[in-house]
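Discussion board: Methods & Data

I've been asked by a reviewer to show the raw model output for two of the constructs in my manuscript, not just the figures. I'm not sure how much to include, so I'm pasting the format here to get opinions. Each protein appears as its amino acid sequence followed by a line of discrete structure tokens. Is this the kind of thing reviewers expect to see in a supplement, or should I convert it first? Here is construct A:
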Amino acid sequence: MKILVINSGSSSIKYQLLDMENDSVLASGVIECIGLEQGILTHKKAPDTDAAIKIVVEQPIPDHAVGMHLAVDALTHPEHGVITDASEIDGVGHRIVHGGEKFTTPMLVDQSVIDGIREVADLAPLHNLAHLTGIEVAQSIFKCKHVTVFDTAFHQTMPAKAYQYAIPYEIYEELHVRRYGFHGTSHKYVARRTAELLGKPAEDLNIITVHLGNGSSLAAIQGGKCIDTSMGMTPLAGVIMGTRSGNVDPAVLKFIAEKKGLSIQEVEEMLTKRSGLVGICGMSDMRDIHSAIEKGDERAKLALDMVCHRVRQYIGAYWAELGRVDAIVFTAGIGENDDIVRLGVLKGMEPMGVILDEAANAKRAGEWARISTPESKVDVLVVRTNEELEIARETVKFVK
């Protein structure tokens, strides 16, 4: 069974074709700069193998329909393609950023689902409307079942005490202002994979998943269900990220706006695109920050320390919520690859039963690795996330 996973953005389309007989990636690609003067298609055949083939096509891509047809051309090309015809695709899974309170599980696409995604689009206007465009174009090409998988769905098991804001209740009722959380597909996949690796039912485990990348979030997962997560109504909340501030005192927005003569939109743009790591030290890539620290850059050191401090705070809070922690799991770009950040986050947790194996932590994890010692009372793992595989698996359920 072949499943195509699509993530349609406002000016891009990411895709991955998977063979669900063995969960292998047949091809992947990204179409960028849609609607600009010059677009780019980057396509990879068998990207995870030694026989990988990469091609790059540069041409004007005026809209998503042209972009999607380019992807089909690449997937069916005699040399770097992996199928002969679009009809070989058995199902299409669509990543949707925001499902609001309306969508708590993956859904088979029909008119009511399309209307529902549009209804909650004001919670993520740039993303959801682009997703709808992607669905419309894909449905015109691929005559199979289409499934939506929502980033927010996994966190919909949070109790009201965790997702409510302490604002007038009628604001929540009218505008649905609450905490939703994001990266849910990643947290769900990693938690399930952790249970498999530990050889225990997910229902018996309490896990803290630590998704650290340019965007970062943590989740407290009890018995396979999320009971709390660090992001809020938007992905701006929580820990410090590449360009996002994470949590700040809400009154800071008014203070900065008045002192700097900025609108609320301009302050939000600052907190979203010019804060976080880049705001502290001018760099958003953790590799650059480590290099700067080695050269004595004090602000780079401050940025690293702040990130580790905030992540450790959330781990402590979720530990208190869960009562017992069986595993702490790092994932995503920084979580999977940055041993310095992992060490900084876990440093000093030995009295809590977390004992890091520094030699194991310093090695490349690959698909997964245990980086705690046998004496550690809590398993500490690094698990490579795979959101596309999770979306594909959910799509298969509907196709079958």
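Construct B, same format:
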Amino acid sequence: MANNLLHRHVLEDHISGFENDPNPNHLVVVRRPVIFSVLAHVGHEAAVAESLRKAEDIVPRFCGPSEWLAVSQTARAETVASVLSGMTGASFADQSDGKVLLVISGPSVRQILARCVAVDLHPDVFAQRQSANMMCCHVAANVARTGPDTFEIIVPRPVAGSAFDELMEMGREHALSRSFSD
């Protein structure tokens, strides 16, 4: 019983019992993503950025000058830590237990997010693979465009419920559905 509590997701009560087949507009809560903060030491910014870009099974999310999130939905934390420890001029910390990864997609995703962020998400302005720190649903978040109509949102665990509830409210008129990842 105690082991189940250790792996209980912070949004379990927000979704369990309400999961349904995905509508065209859908919000997925990723159960166990691996998320590391990565900081480049002075003079190593370009090398760290390039190493992150080339790393297998790791997707870098730009946060600010010399700062990224290294995100993986396929690799284990130990694997990501091993890759990051091989980078010269970088410091890193595992943030997986302190962050929640949400994936929102669908034809109305920009209309939904327009109610939650003060950033222009038009494809000509916010390109695929682009990410930035911003306020999303009144919460500090990292938002990344990962596909034509897909965005990933990383929020701190303590406020994930608030961000999730607001996203669902903003997506209600677009029939936004929700589920956990497999």
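Answer (T.O., handling editor elsewhere):
This is acceptable in a supplement if you add a one-line summary per construct. For B, something like: Strands lie at 26-30, 34-40, 59-64, 67-72, 90-94, 99-105, 131-136, 139-147, 150-156, 177-180.
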